[in-house]
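A brief tutorial aside. Many learners find it easier to grasp structure tokens once they have seen a single protein encoded end to end. The record that follows does exactly this for Cell division protein ZapA. Read the sequence first, then the structure, and try to relate runs of similar tokens to stretches of the chain.
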Amino acid sequence: MSDQQRIRTSVEIYGHTYKMVGTETSGHMRLVASTVDEKMREIHAMNPSLDSSRLAVLTAVNAVHDNLKLKERIEQLENELKKPKG
């Protein structure tokens, strides 16, 4: 990250303001934050008794699950592309 300019931006997730720092655009960081916020609100709607810590953990678990499934799908598609057509 030292070679690239670090971007700082404030975002709101589930009613809390966070400072994000990264090499992505502030628009990208806001999109990430709004996606997390949306997922937390979605999970809260299904489980209103969860406190914010448990809600955050469930949101992280869901995000990692989705990421792993996408990686599996990418690998599957890459393997299909490598197969000889016949």
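Self-check: The CA atoms of residues 80 and 86 lie 12 Å apart. If you spotted this yourself, you are ready for the next section.
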